[in-house]
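Q: Fold this one first, please.
A: Sequence and structure below.
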Amino acid sequence: MDLKLNDKTALVFGGSRGLGRAVAAELAAEGARVVIVARDAARVETVAAELGVIGLAGDVSKPGASRALVGKAAALLGSGPDILVTNTGGPAPGNFEDISDAAWQAGFDNLWMSFVESVGAALPAMRAKGFGRILAVTSVAAKEPMSGLVVSNGLRAGLLGLVNSISRDVAAAGITVNALMPGYTNTDRMKDLGVTSAKVGSKIPAGRIGEPEEFAALAAFLASERAGYITGQAIAVDGGYLQSI
């Protein structure tokens, strides 16, 4: 299937590792010109060279950084990105009574405001072109809260409402906005946590954890012109893990 991304540009946050890297690789393989963003400047440079994309160092958890990064990416690409993939690390774990006000604020800046800022910065150029694809990488925790992850549960669930709200405002302009909810996936973070198919596969109908490339395949499709009638959705890539409808 030709996704017709040869004339498209993309900005992928968290693009040096895991799901972000897989999405950036898939978009680049489909012909898009891609900028990846991550905090570690040396790693960004290395991964960008490996993928044949443009690397940009930045920390989206800092107020104002996401907005500025969209502008920097636009300068590197020659125009505002046609495809925006927001993707950040998870906030600090803990139950409600364990979380400080500072931790709540840090989670809000990282998960919520990075999305708000970057979308706000990217929309004008998308409107001018009559085309845009915004993909928010969240988590299955947005639909089914996970124990000990109260900050993530609360903010990610709220993002689904924001995604749907924005999608209604911009749909007539040829812009789609969707959330992708990964389940257990074979990333470095999962390896660090000791999550393997052997340990959690029995909880997943597919019997195994997913691969980043399987997640990236959906992201690339949703970024294409073929997916122009899919918007305001929260789509799980989880091997059937979610039990809700």
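Q: Good. Now the second chain.
A: Here it is, same layout.
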Amino acid sequence: MSAALVIAAHEWRRLRVQAWSWLLLAGVIGLLAWVFLGRLDTFLRLQETTGHAANVAATAQVAAPALGWLAIVLIVLVPLLGSRSIAGERRAHSLSLLLAAGVGDGAIAIGKWLGLYLWLLLLIALTALLPLSLYGSTALDLGRLAANGLALVLHASALAAIALYASSVTTQPVLAAALALLINIVFCVIDLGARAAGVNHSLINWLALPTHFGPLSEGVVASVDLVWFVLVTAVFLALTARQLASLRSAD
């Protein structure tokens, strides 16, 4: 575990010192702030028109959608951030040194994932400040916001594991980002045909990401949804470790 923590710290530093990581972070926060303020302005205008109290549905109409937009952005952002995790080291021939140092494949996978995941948690924490800025001026449903935060934390965990796996199967970061994005999209639309046919409780529905993220974002926390995110994270971390083992044997 100590080796995994060292690798996680190195991965964190790699993201911290690269300008494009901060540019992506600033761009996402700016976009979400614009969406948040736009919805807040619309909501306040609606309250003035109807004469209702401003706290009637502030959580549902202003606070929660800001977090929902982050979930969509993460589908594209995480592949970009994680594309160089392993692919970049393979191109620089530094991964061979790490493998030769005797560090376990699982420790490398967990360390790389944890470093990226911590960066994503920072983004989630900064985004959460947007809806929390309304606290004190209106009544917020803190339970629903907590469920939204939990959904984003689990969502980011699964996406980070997918991005890491994609980065392990190629030496080209661009290809790794494209592969991770493709996997993310497949998880989002895999049950599209089933839902169009009116099928909502089959295995293919269970495999789809929206099936599990949706209830959490509405404030419904169920063990089946938590298990899905944990399983996706574990499976792709295991696939990454297996890919690293094949690279080790090839060397």
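Q: Anything worth noting on the second one?
A: The mean pLDDT is 86.
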